[in-house]
Structure formats: C-alpha cells, structure tokens
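Work Package 3 (structural annotation) set out to generate three-dimensional models for the target panel prioritized at the project kickoff. During this period the team completed the workflow that converts sequence records into discrete structure tokens, so that structures can be stored uniformly alongside our sequence database. As a representative example, we reproduce one entry of 175 residues exactly as it appears in the project archive.
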Amino acid sequence: MTPRRPSALIVVESYWGNTAAIAAAVADGLRQAGVEPTLVDAADAPVSIGPETGLLLIGAPTHNMALPGPSSRRTAATRGAPADGPGVREWLERLRFEAAAVVYAFDTHTSKYSGSAAEDAVRRLRRSPARAQVGERFQIAGDPPVLREGELARAAAWGRQLAAGIGADVPSSLE
C-alpha cells in the first residue's frame, strides 16, 4: 500500500488575478516538495475542515485595510474586476473545524500601511480550534494592480518551506 501524501487546501479570493497567481505559485511549491495541494475559490470552498487537511492556506487581496467585503467587491466590479459571489470573509463566517488545524493566511497589498487581509482572517479565526497565523504578504502596484517582480518565486519558495512543516510541529522559521 502506498503511503498517502500530505495534503493542503488553499482557499483564495482574487479579482485581478494577483492573489490567485500567488496561490497557484504556493501550490506549485507545495507540489514540488511532495504535498498534494487543492486550490479552490472561496465561493466553492468546503465549509468543514477535517483532520485529512494537513495545512489550510487562506489568501485574499487587502481591501480597505482588511478582507474584502460586499462593498469593496462592488467597487472592484465597477473597475472591471470579476468580483461576484461570496469571498473569504463570508466563507470564514461559515467555516467549521472537525479537528485542530494549522492555518496560514496570506494576502496581496500595496504597502505595509495598507492594512492586511491576512491579519483580518487570522483575527476571525481566534475562537476556532485552528492554529492560525499570518503567513507571507505579497506586494502589488499599479492600476490595475500587478504583482511586483519576484513575488511569484517568493510564493513558490514559501510553499516548499510550508511543506517541510506538514505533519510536524510548525517549524520555528515560520513562527
């Protein structure tokens, strides 16, 4: 019998494709390190996380200093972004854990002063059995926004680093 590969679930919300591109690069890094990632849009994400999920990653763009909400989605849609349906904020309101889970939230942002969707996500998980922490933050710039050079490579490297910690205590380099 072949041993089951560790698994990771990546839940993402993205309007201009930047946060989705980061999530895909993290998934590639996890895959390269032997972890089987599942990448899913927040609107389609499971609302129950069981013990089979070795790692849960949550990604969203930073809007109005936090996770996007309905009003920021409407604003993004007026600028041409495909911003319909529920996002990470609404998914977190319904999310339940069947067992304790290791969770990292990541985001895209314009500057360190723009707030943090990742910090907002972790704050919303405080009362859950999850061990939630802010992971990496990735920079965007411009209008429409694009990822800064090197961010996709950094995301893939972070995925490989996270893979090393699945099935063990969180590595001290990630604390």
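Residues 168-175 have pLDDT under 50 and may be disordered.
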